[in-house]
Design a protein that fits this description.
The chain is 27% helix and 18% strand. It has 2 helices and 2 strands, in the order αβαβ. It is elongated, with a radius of gyration of 13 Å.
Amino acid sequence: MIARSIHGAKKYILQNFRTGKLLDPDFDGKSFSHDELIQLRDAANPFVQSCSIRL
């Protein structure tokens, strides 16, 4: 988890992956659901002062 490596940071902002025009057309990643982003935020919260989700 990235949040552990930035332990003590003032801010950590999560941003979802956007599908569309990609540099690597073979990449087939998918976006997180809103609930998954909330779970990621909650998991990162103990490691940083403020964690939020950029919409």
